[in-house]
From TrEMBL:
This is Sodium:alanine symporter family protein. PANTHER family: AGSS FAMILY TRANSPORTER, SODIUM-ALANINE, TRANSCRIPTIONAL REGULATOR, LRP FAMILY. It comes from the Bacteria. It holds the Pfam family Na_Ala_symp. Belongs to the alanine or glycine:cation symporter (AGCS) (TC 2.A.25) family. The keyword Magnesium does not apply. The chain crosses the membrane at residues 20-39, 74-98, 104-121, 155-173, 193-211, 223-244, 250-272, 322-342, 369-389, 409-429, 435-456. Keywords: Cell membrane, Membrane, Symport, Transmembrane, Transmembrane helix, Transport. The lineage of its organism: Bacteria, Bacillati, Bacillota, Clostridia, Eubacteriales. InterPro entries: Na/Ala_symport.
């Protein structure tokens, strides 16, 4: 009873803090930064999206023949995607559509549209200002950008340290606790596997792979992420096609809810403004949880890429936001919207949310196989996210201490935390992750705004390279 009371109190506190940090100011800063960067760069991120997608799928992107780095450009992207395509796409979308109404999906799209430029910018800068550590490995990310690019070195050093601190904290939240929790809950729901058993297995598997560092992590990511993403998208399309007659009504509900015409999920009526703000808040928050644009995390992995030009790799890494939110999250959202399961309750009278909602949506078309597919998808995606975020957190940890010598301590601790995540209640885990996301994003967004002129200049200059390559 005492532990339950403590958990409830902790949950209430985290929920209150979460509501504050993800208020209007944070939403404006996050989306507004993407808008400003898109305008200053003359929309080149959007205009060159085709070039970026083509570069990502090229044979050259899978080699280390051009420039210097630890892993190939494609491996850098898939490792970054490993940290993003996961529970945010399957569980996060469902949570957003329950908490903020189906209209949250529209705000996920809008935040992703401008997040493409944010993702490009942070990754490009990370490569431009990366360093080689004492172990001969690339080290980069917003913390190095702030330290080296800011004219006022004191401010840059402080912001860099703060970002690294929040990145370490976020790695345990968004990158570990939420992922392990989603895996354990889905496996328990589908196959009744005890959460403590899942926690032990996750810890052991994570440690085995993590010990090998970025090269080991990228080898797993470049196989698991593309294969599972394609499989999940195809299965999602099958669900949508089977429920095709409900798609128009589902899309209508999505757009009406986005502007506050429909009441909130669960039949709770609200004003148009309150409803729209709720959809916006959860849509943007879960969108960021999914694609991490503006957070700066993907930039840490991008810095390990082998490339001859920081802008070139920036374009490759920015496609992660497109694949993650515009493609995969949309599939999940449309499956839920067209299935008729949104707003349903379970045996206890609680709204069906998270993994259970997505499983229910797939099951309407595929039966038990739908549940199996989503469960396997969550397990693989979430586990790859744990691996990708370990690298993010490790590099931030290395930056704070100024040496790579203690990275093994971080790796062991990170792996053990997976057990806690697997056995912790969902809401506490999600609220903690949302808070960590906001705290991590703030210094990174300040950095992007401060260096927006430099970003635009480098991007415009690279247009000559793009034109030359197209004319070959």
């Amino acid at each position: 009873m005492l532990m339950k009371g403590f958990a409830k109190t902790l949950g209430d506190v985290l929920s209150t803090i979460d509501g504050i940090v993800w208020g209007p100011i944070m939403l404006c800063l996050l989306v507004g930064t993407g808008v400003i960067l898109t305008i200053r760069t003359r929309g080149l991120g959007w205009r060159n999206l085709g070039y970026a997608l083509k570069s990502t799928l090229s044979k050259e992107a899978r080699t280390k023949s051009r420039g210097s780095g630890d892993i190939s450009p494609f491996s850098a992207l898939t490792t970054a995607l490993a940290a993003t395509i996961g529970t945010g796409n399957i569980v996060g979308v469902a949570t957003a559509m329950v908490s903020g109404g189906p209209g949250a999906l529209v705000w996920m799209w809008l935040s992703a549209a401008f997040g493409i430029t944010s993702k490009f910018s942070e990754c490009m800068l990370a490569i431009k200002y990366r360093e080689v550590n004492a172990n001969g490995e690339m080290s980069g990310g917003p913390m190095y950008t702030m330290k080296k690019a800011f004219k006022n070195k004191k401010i840059g050093a402080v912001l860099g340290w703060v970002f690294a601190l929040f990145a370490v904290i976020a790695s345990f939240g968004i990158g570990n606790l939420t992922q392990a929790n989603s895996i354990s809950e889905s496996l328990k729901s589908t196959w009744n596997i005890p959460t403590n058993v899942v926690g032990v297995i996750l810890t052991i598997l994570a440690l085995i792979i993590i010990v090998g560092g970025i090269k080991s992590i990228s080898k797993v990511s470049q196989v698991v992420v593309p294969a599972m993403a394609i499989f999940y998208v195809i299965a999602g399309l099958v669900v949508i096609i089977i429920n095709i007659e409900n798609v128009p009504a589902g899309l209508t509900a999505v757009f009406q809810s986005a502007i506050g015409i429909q009441p909130l999920a669960g039949g709770v009526a609200g004003t148009i403004t309150a409803s729209m703000m709720n959809a916006m808040r959860f849509g943007v928050a879960r969108g960021v949880f999914s694609n991490e644009a503006g957070m700066g995390s993907a930039a840490i992995t991008a810095a390990a890429a082998t490339t001859d030009n920081h802008v070139r790799q920036g374009y490759i890494n920015m496609t992660g936001t497109f694949y993650d939110t515009i493609v995969v999250c949309t599939i999940t959202g449309l499956c839920i919207a067209s299935s008729g399961v949104l707003g349903t309750t379970d045996a206890s009278g609680e709204l069906v949310s998270g993994a259970a909602l997505t499983i229910a949506a797939f099951s309407t078309a595929l039966g038990k196989w739908g549940a199996y597919l989503v469960t396997i998808g969550i397990a693989l995606f979430a586990f790859s996210t744990i691996l990708g975020w370990e690298y993010h957190g490790e590099k931030a940890f290395e930056y704070i201490l100024g040496t790579h010598k203690y990275n093994m301590i971080y790796r062991i601790l990170f792996s053990l935390i997976a057990y806690i995540g697997a056995t912790t209640t969902l809401q506490i885990v999600w609220d903690f992750s949302d808070i960590a996301n906001a705290l991590m994003a703030i210094p990174n967004l300040i950095c992007l705004l401060a260096l927006s002129g430099e970003i635009a200049k480098d991007m415009i200059e690279f247009q000559k390279v793009i034109k030359a390559e197209k004319n070959k």
